[in-house]
Each structure stands twice: as C-alpha cells, then as structure tokens.
Design goal:
Bound molecules: zinc ion
Keywords: Membrane, Transmembrane, Transmembrane helix
Number of domains: 2
Largest sheet: none
Shape: elongated
Radius of gyration: 33 Å
Length: 125
Amino acid sequence: MSNLVLKLAQAIGIVVLAVLVVGTVIGVLQWLVVAAGLVALPVAGIWLYFRLSGRSTARPARRSAPRPTRADRAVTARRAELEGRAVYDAVGRCGWCGSGTRHQDRYGFPATPLAFHRSEIDAML
Ligand SMILES: [Zn+2]
C-alpha cells in the first residue's frame, strides 16, 4: 500500500517538475518575444523616420539615378501644372472641366478629377 502511494507521489512529482520546466521555457520565450518587440519598435521608428525624412541609405541610389535633362524637367513641370488643375475647388467644381457634379469612374464609384481626366492630361503632354 505504501509502495503504491510512493509511486503515485513520484508520478505527481515528475508531472509537477515537467509543468515547471515547460512553464519556465514558455516564460523565457515570452520574455524574448517581448524584449524583441521592445527593441524592434524604436528601431522601426528610427528606420521609418530616416526613410520618410529622406536621410537614409536611399540617397546613394538617388544620386546614381540619371540626372533629368532640361526636357525632362519641362515635361515634369508641365505635368505638375496640368495635374494641379485637375482638382476640385472649394465649392466642389472640377478645376479641369468645370463640371459641378462629382466625377465617377465607369463602375459608378467616385473618382478624383485627376483619375477621371488622366487620359486627357496625358494627351496634352
Ligand atoms: Zn472634370
């Protein structure tokens, strides 16, 4: 009888030990995940900041790009001027065609003047 109790106690002890070990491992893993997250968040923030402010490793790539010629710049300026006209004004009138109603794409969804008049703008370039 006492032998059986001893065996039972031994089994319970092994189970408790196993649970403790698994719990410890899971705890360490959780801690690692949290620590990685805590480290990654500021790093991601700094990376995003440098990326958005343009002071990143993107600069060498931009420097190696071919310099725009005078004609390229003229086209870019003309495109910017034309696209600047294709916006709604304060009263919701299209600056490109003067229409007082909102533009819709061919599926009936609202479209920006820029998207709606894209082909006309491209044709004028
Ligand atoms: Zn329009």
